[in-house]
Amino acid sequence: NKCMTEPRYLEASIREDLAEKMVLVAGPRQVGKTTLAQRILAASEAGVYRNWDNRHDRREIRAALWPGGEALVVLDELHKWRSWKGWLKGEFDKHRGRLRFLVTGSARLDVYRRGGDSLQGRYHHYRLHPFSCGEVAAGGRPAARVVGEELRFSARASNEALRALMKFGGFPEPFLAQSSRTLLRWQKERLDRFFREDVRDLESIRDLSSLQLLAELLPERVASPLSLNALREDLETSHRALTHWMEVLERLYHVFRIRPLTSPNVRALRKMPKAYLWDWSLVPAPGPRFENLVGAHLLKFCHFLQDREGVSADLRYLRDRAGREVDFLVTIGRKPWFAVEAKLAEASIDPALVYFRDRLGIPWTYQVMLEGDRDFVQDGVRCMPARKFLSALV
Fold first, then answer.
1. Three-class SS state of 252
2. 363 secondary structure, DSSP code
3. CA–CA separation, 287 vs 290, rounded Å?
4. Is residue 72 a contact partner of residue 47, using CB atoms and an 8 Å limit?
5. pLDDT digits over 228-259, tens only?
6. How far apart, in Å, are the Cα atoms of 12 and each of 7, 25, 117, 141?
């Protein structure tokens, strides 16, 4: 499998940015952050890898034992040290003439800049996502595009790649193995470690069993507006606790939420986000799983535009009080760029796409289908195979 040997889609960007600042790479557990960092380290003339979870490495980090001369320092899971930010600022300022710092972690590193000793201006921040149609097809080289213009489509992605992503998800280990047994064992072990290590090390959770129960309930609620009140009743807990648990799952890259677009041109819902999983292979029903896969691809695309290009891309969904809904809308600077409706099979164009396109002035609208090969335009909406659409992203 060429995915094992090709660079990840962020590798070239990170190498480039390390020349001027430190780089922080965050993402879910087992998404490939350490492998990516070690590839970059292996290509450096000199360097060192330290993991905060390792007791010996922890002592060396605290003692700041670095190689002499110019070198790359890779620090894994450093955010689990409460004082990491101020310490890292000091080390970077002291050694910035000769040392380059690459820091990886399984929690949102960007949120820590809000308080205390800020690293602002000293780093570039990236979020590493699972494999996608675009990355598998392009071999780690993101496709060229012009932000705000129509996406450039090709038939690079195969049906086999999309089917494998649907069945096994995009995390490297199960995707590369493409074994149902490997997937089930990997899911269990990963979730066990997620709650036993990541949540315990980073968050103050008194009722861990209820947080785990919440995580078990979410796959059945993917792709529908998420009612915290209904979840609160199911879990028999307070709204405050449930809100905190959802924030924890979001910070640790288990779940991501997409909020509805608010606009004076439509009577839209103002609350009720939809929740999706970073590991869409956990979603049991084919329809919601496919929608989750498409949403994860679009989020990866938006994060790449934000992190690499500095573009204010955002992902929303559309729903008004009359019940009309479109699965996804990508905006640039709060202005609509393109809307996407996900369908399992070829169907007539969803009227909601036409309605919202006309009311909001959406330049491009797409209906993408998991099954089927036709590529056609109806009522100004382009209907096309998902593998073709998704391969135009990252």
1. coil
2. S
3. 5
4. yes
5. 999 999 999 999 999 999 999 999 999 999 99
6. 8, 13, 29, 8
pLDDT at 32 exceeding the cut of 60 = yes
pLDDT of residue 141: 73
E strands along 166-235, which residues? none
| H-only helix segments in 19-109 | 33-42, 55-63, 84-95
Distance CA 311, CA 23 (A): 18
Question: Three-state DSSP class for 67?
Answer: coil
**Spatial contact of 182 and 173, defined as CB atoms under 8 Å apart:** yes
- Interhelix angle for 180-193 vs 159-168, to 10°? 50
Residue type, 237: T
Predicted pLDDT of residue 203: 82
- Residues 6 or more apart whose CB falls under 8 angstroms from that of 126 comprise 10, 13, 14, 23, 24, 25, 26, 307, 308
For residue 149, what are the CA distances in angstroms to 157, 256, 314? 21, 26, 16
Q: What is the pLDDT of residues 171-196, one digit of tens each?
A: 999 999 999 999 999 999 999 999 99
Residues 6 or more apart in contact with residue 343 via CB below 8 angstroms: 350, 367, 368, 369, 370
Distance CA 43, CA 92 (A): 21
Question: From CA 146, how far away is CA 335, in angstroms rounded?
Answer: 15
- pLDDT-based confidence at 1, cuts 50/70/90? low
Which tokens is 355 given? Answer: 């309605």
C-alpha 166/C-alpha 196 separation (Å) is 28
Place of tokens 């649907």: 166
Compute CA distances 384 → 268, 289, 340, whole Å. 27, 19, 11
Cβ atoms of residues 113 and 35 within 8 Å: no
Contact call for residues 98 and 128 (beta carbons, < 8 A): no
Cβ-in-10-Å burial (0-12, 13-18, 19+) of 339 comes to: buried
